Structures are given as C-alpha cells and as structure tokens.
User: Fold OsmC family protein from Brachybacterium hainanense.
Amino acid sequence: MTSTPSDRFPRPEAYGEGSVWADRVGHRSLVGRNQRGVEIPIGQGEGEISPGELLKLALIGCAGMSSDFAIGRRLGEDFAMRLWAHGTSDGETNRYARIPEEIQLDLEGLDEAALARLVTVVGRAIESGCTVERSIVPGVEVTHRILGVEADPEARA
Assistant:
C-alpha cells in the first residue's frame, strides 16, 4: 500500500522518493508516515514513541540491516538477532552524547578466532554501510558490542 500526504497542505517541492512526513494530531503528539503506508505515533504519551527513541531505533535498525549479510555468512541465513540501543539525552545540553548499541546473537559453536572475525566484520559492515550512523557521527559517540563476547578480541592481539 502506498501513501501520500493529505491535501491539507501543498507538498513541498522537494517531496519525492525518501520523503517522510508527520502530522500533528494533538498537543506534542504527531503521526509520522512514509510512502509505503507505515504510520508511527510520535510523542511522550501511551502508545507513542519519542523522537529520541526513533533515533535509537533508526541506528539499530540500520546497524542490523547493514550487518545482516556478514552475520548470515557466519551464522547461517536464518540466524536470530536482537539489537539494543541505550541512553538518555543529557538534560543540560539537550542532546545525546553517547548511544551504546548491543547485538545479541546465538554464538554457540564459535571459537575465539571466529568470534574475533565476527566482531571485525560486523564493525566494518556497520561502519561502511549504516547511512544513519554515518550521518550523525562524529556528533554522537555510537558504540557496538556483540553480547557474549567479553572484549574486543582484536584488542588482545
């Protein structure tokens, strides 16, 4: 299903592929939409997601999509993965100074060398392929850690 903005306001000249929009539906409450018909309630209320949470979801969504192929080559095509992004904005500066990300994978059966290679290829895949992170870094420190791997195995070498 495709979606276009209502005619309440004229579409901006820049409207096209990749455009998203948000319509105000109440006090500090919006509905974000894309052209594929997805709607996301944005705000601080029940059933809404905050802009900061959207930022963190965009980061981990991009990290997951960017690393999917590299992880699948090592763990098999049907691997399970959960990504986390943590942190709150600093009230004084009103910005996120750091957003730690964590990736959960089934690491059973991987030896230390395979773990080290996994950490390396995941980091490279995200660094080169994650448009969201590449767009906001170096303004925000974003870290990645695969849960279950004690430390960066390359750092021990």
